[in-house]
Specification:
Length: 729
């Protein structure tokens, strides 16, 4: 137990690094002197006149010999301070600094300064304890209770310093409450890194190599000072300890910031607001954290937000995400996640981004079983609806929408773009596959657009696939089509022991024939819910053909987007052809073929990738090949849905004609699905008259996204006409 100890007064200026942790021939300030850039004119001692002026201004020092200044130092601006240890002060030339409505004179007043470097023309006032910080030029520090750095500061990185026991290492317990998937955070960690580390826990050598790499990523020597970048404003805050802050950061009214890095820059400034508590974490560039939020053992991705009392604990959240009000524990969240409501709760999950947690949604009930080791995995576009609850352990395909209600049993939903409903009246689970494509095209089409539009990152380390139709979703669509074929085959077969291949063939025949033969069947899903009640698959015929349209649209939209789309009509190099159902891995928002992930892991194990910089370069190399890999996957999907080995001119014409119909349908259904809201008669009940109704809601035809989709449709139809003319039968 730590106790208050009486020390000699010299400890105020001399105590910093224990001699046993200093490299031979180094003093306690050797790292500090590497961190700070000396002024061009160099440092100098105070002259006697300057000391006299400082003393008259009610300043004291443990020794004036350890206070260093530049030739541009003006002692009149230094009043009512206490200086301890080696303090170096840059230019003090008078004038004032202003940020918004805060205006402070340049200088230092009413503060206690311990062994700090202070940049040019800073305004430091009423900082009651400022110790072991390097402060950049033109910073404003006002009314701060405690701001200090320890000799073993790690600034949120999951390392141990010289002489520290392993028990002090900070780890983030993602994906699982038990800590078995824990990762060691570091400045620059992205969701891809966390997923690589947390997912492949059975790869023991990989785990050890990642731990070793991370420990080497940050220097283990003691003695690093806290850093405050240029033009930072910190005011009315209580405790700031072991914190590194980038330039242009704005902190107001923070309650406690401890052992963190806040990345910030002139182009991507971060902001920390009132009553915020941040402990043991990394804040990305361009982040906003306001209104009594708490984050402990965390990583917050670039251009992300915590607002209105949100609690982020033992979790990693990707870029372009926002969490408000709610509680988030033990999660790995990929980019573009939205969670805005006070009564939503997320625990022990992998949420693969572009997701939305509605009000009252509870994903993961704690301690379902005998221990708290349950997990949830949800693909891109996961959306648990109002007041829905999900039980560990469950898995959801991409773009699964949960209807309002409690889901009492574990779920494994293999059908992407589906609506899942717990029918309490009939005591069954109901699933409408391809629901988004069939009934809400506006939301589906807008999805990719809105996430691309909201991507305001300048620092883009995590590569992100924003397109709804991509290898991960389309691979799931292919598997879903096969499942529907099998389930339809079983629904019309009396032989419960029939071969699955025969069932699939029978189901495909029915689904490709007259819909009446399918509509009369009761199609049941298998292995979907851990219960004895039935799982009804609804709208099977429509869903099956919707999936087919999705696959064609995926392939043809990839073709339309290619710069050399005309040459692509000639075929695909057989050497590059991939299997349509080839496994793809969502690595933190970046999609990779599984074999690429296997090669990545092998190269880390073997030492060919020996740093996080090397690993990130590999991500980028894979990303640079992604456009080509995606096209070949799309081509393979097209061949599959058209039941062809290669695309012939006749098939290209068929596919172009099909895509033309799809393009027209998308534009039409975007309009129709949006018009449903406008035609809702209950909208009018909140308005006094038609004029108010129009002023509030406008018209469908004036909707900017509806107009945009019509324009895109016209543009794509022109490309289709051009390509059709190039096809030689």
């Amino acid at each position: 137990m730590e106790r208050v100890t009486l020390l000699p007064s010299a400890a105020l200026s001399d105590g910093w690094i224990d001699a046993q942790y200093l490299p031979e021939g180094k003093d306690k300030y050797y790292i500090r002197n590497m961190q700070v850039k000396a002024p061009e004119e160099g440092w100098r001692h105070l002259n006697s006149d300057e000391i006299e002026r400082l003393v008259k201004n009610n300043n004291t020092a443990s020794s004036w010999d350890t206070v260093w200044v530049t030739d541009s130092f003006e002692p009149r601006m230094i009043k009512d301070n206490k200086f301890y240890g080696t303090v170096r002060i840059g230019r003090v030339s008078g004038g004032a600094l202003q940020y918004h409505d805060l205006r402070l004179p340049v200088g230092i007043t009413n503060s206690s300064i311990h062994s700090c470097d202070i940049g040019d023309d800073c305004a430091i006032h009423d900082v009651h304890y400022l110790s072991h910080y390097i402060i950049g030029d033109h910073c404003m520090l006002f009314n701060i209770q405690e701001m200090d750095t320890t000799d073993h500061a790690k600034f949120g990185n999951g390392i141990v310093k010289d002489g520290e026991p392993e028990e002090v290492r900070v780890k983030i317990q993602i994906m699982n409450e038990t800590g078995v998937r824990s990762v060691m955070p570091f400045d620059g960690m992205i969701p891809a890194d966390a997923y690589l580390w947390g997912k492949y826990v059975d790869d023991r050598l990989l785990q050890q190599r990642l731990a070793d790499i991370t420990q080497r990523t940050v220097d283990h020597h003691r003695g690093y000072y806290g850093m405050i970048g240029e033009r930072c404003v910190i005011k009315n805050s209580s405790i700031i300890k072991d914190v590194k802050i980038g330039s242009d950061c704005y902190i107001k009214g923070a309650s406690k910031l401890k052992n963190i890095t806040i990345n910030s820059s002139c182009s991507e400034p971060s902001q920390i607001g009132e009553n915020v508590i941040l402990v043991n974490g990394i804040v990305g560039y361009g982040c906003r954290i306001f209104y009594s939020c708490t984050a402990v053992k965390f990583i917050l991705g670039n251009n992300s937000n915590l607002k209105y009392g949100a609690r982020l604990i033992d979790s990693i959240m990707g870029d372009n995400s926002t969490i408000s009000c709610c509680e988030v524990l033990n999660n790995l969240i990929f980019p573009a996640h939205e969670q805005h409501h006070n009564n939503s709760f997320l625990i022990a999950s992998v949420i693969m981004g572009q997701s939305n947690m509605a009000a009252g949604a509870t994903v993961g009930s704690n301690h379902n079983s005998r221990t708290n080791d349950g997990e949830i995995v949800a693909g891109r576009g996961f959306w648990p609806g109002l007041c829905s609850s999900v039980k560990h352990s469950s898995r959801f395909a991409c773009y699964t929408l949960l209807a309002k209600g409690d889901f009492p049993a574990e779920l494994d939903i293999p059908l992407p773009f589906s609506l899942v409903n717990n029918n309490v009246t009939d005591n069954c689970l109901e699933i409408i596959p391809a629901y988004w494509w069939l009934y809400n095209m506006y939301a589906l089409a807008r999805n990719s657009w809105k996430y691309k539009t909201r991507d305001k990152r300048i620092t883009k380390v995590q590569n992100i696939e924003f397109d709804t139709f991509a290898p991960d979703t389309m691979s799931e669509v292919l598997r879903a089509r096969k499942l529907l074929e099998v389930w339809v085959g079983k629904a019309c077969c009396d032989d419960v022991h029939a071969d699955e291949c025969l069932l699939q063939k029978k189901g495909r025949q029915l689904l490709c024939g007259d819909r009446k033969a399918v509509d009369i069947l009761t199609v049941l899903g298998e292995g979907v819910e851990r219960s004895r009640r039935p799982v009804h698959i609804l709208k099977v015929y429509d869903a099956y053909h919707a999936y087919g349209d999705m696959l064609i649209h995926y392939a043809m939209s990839s073709l339309l987007a290619k710069e050399d789309n005309a040459s692509a009509l000639k075929g695909v190099d057989a050497r590059r052809t991939v299997l349509p159902d080839e496994a793809w891995v969502n690595m933190g928002g970046q999609l990779m073929p599984e074999y690429e992930v296997d090669c990545l892991r092998a190269d880390i194990r073997d030492g060919r990738l020996d740093s996080w910089e090397d690993i990130h370069k590999r991500y980028d190399e894979i990303w640079n090949r992604y456009t080509v890999d995606k096209w070949y996957h799309a081509y393979a999907c097209l061949c599959t849905v058209l039941d062809a080995e290669v695309m012939t001119p006749e098939l290209w014409l068929q596919a172009l004609a099909h895509e033309e119909r799809i393009q027209r349908r998308i534009a039409e259904q975007v309009y129709v699905s949006r018009k449903k809201d406008h035609d809702n008669p209950f909208r009018a009940c909140t308005c006094r008259n038609e004029e108010e109704l129009q002023a509030v809601f406008g018209s469908v035809d004036d909707n900017s996204f509806v107009r945009q989709m019509r324009e895109e449709c016209c543009h794509n139809l022109e490309i289709i006409d051009r390509l059709r003319a190039m096809v030689t039968v």
